[in-house]
Amino acid sequence: xxxxxxxxxxxxxxxxxxxxxxxxxxxxxxxxxxxxxxxxxxxxxxxxxxxxxxxxxxxxxxxxxxxxxxxxxxxxxxxxxxxxxxxxxxxxxxxxxxxxxxxxxxxxxxxxxxxxxxxxxxxxxxxxxxxxxxxxxxxxxxxxxxxxxxxxxxxxxxxxxxxxxxxxxxxxxxxxxxxxxxxxxxxxxxxxxxxxxxxxxxxxxxxxxxxxxxxxxxxxxxxxxxxxxxxxxxxxxxxxxxxxxxxxxxxxxxxxxxxxxxxxxxxxxxxxxxxxxxxxxxxxxxxxxxxxxxxxxxxxxxxxxxxxxxxxxxxxxxxxxxxxxxxxxxxxxxxxxxxxxxxxxxxxxxxxxxxxxxxxxxxxxxxxxxxxxxxxxxxxxxxxxxxxxxxxxxxxxxxxxxxxxxxxxxxxxxxxxxxxxxxxxxxxxxxxxxxxxxxxxxxxxxxxxxxxxxxxxxxxxxxxxxxxxxxxxx
Length: 474
Prior knowledge:
It contains twelve helices and six strands. With 474 residues, it is α+β, with helices and mostly antiparallel strands. Strands 3-4-5-1-2-6 form a six-stranded antiparallel β-sheet, with helices on both faces.
């Protein structure tokens, strides 16, 4: 529902790639706090934002279905990421990547400038979704039907792009946009908001803010140890899916070999009786292989999804701790222009940002720990398939010996040559699978150390936030 009327301008309200901003709301979506970049980009005065519903910046081009999906996700206690077109006070627009999550008394949204090609995909999709909503009308039962139609369009578009759900898409969205932003900052040799510039004022205030900043830097450095390996995580997932595709094909190929051997045994009559036994063994083994392959494939699919989720939460944690550092910089530089209701002083604002980071980092590190156990299980499944390949190798050698004994034509020999190729290829693929899981195991093994360091830094930040309250900036 729109809360204000303004002449819409088809012109962007610019802000820089290095700028990150946040706002918090209560459970009803009423703005309780925000940093100075949020105030400047939105074009409002702080007093015009605090106490207002957050949809004061909702652009009419945004599909209502997107916000329904947002609230549904937040109600489930999960975080949400989307490309959002916002409306400034003067009617201009600004696109953001919004990372939103529940916090103790409401919701926290951190936003930054989109820079990847995904916006070019999403903008026309939003236009189609919004057109579908307008066709039905925005109120009552018709409005709900319009949102249903828009959500169907969203689902179809995401499936066409290869995403099973919006959740899978938003995992990728955050990673891609963070990676693109990092590349843009490196190319511009500019990552502002990281240097401390002490403001004039109480020395104790500056000292506590600098201490929070320093602890935040240490936490950021630990998350970066994992964050900068996100490309490897993505690569691990892609490699695992390739192995999954191979082992799925393996079952069909072994069944085909078993059938071919059986047909050749029938053609040879009594001379092919032993081949018939081997064919029967191959058929039984193919059934066993099918079970093992199905188990291995499920494991790979689950682990790949977990890797994507780990990458998502690591990206979110990196963004959140960067927001802590940038906000400390703002406060050290003077801290003017922030939005805050009577209950949201700087100490509480930093505490909410820190708490969000701690929760997201804990989720990422916890998933990494569980991945270690799942990789161990994957290696067990792989070993089971490897043993089956040894049995096939015995059958292949026996088949060649029997073919030589009965002097069968080359057609029979070529069948067992095919078995040999399957065995060798599978052994090679399973060896590569072991290398993939071995490489990833090193990342998992570093997790407990990183987790301890992050917890230490978060504890230090909590102490200094508490001290901020004692100097009158709570």
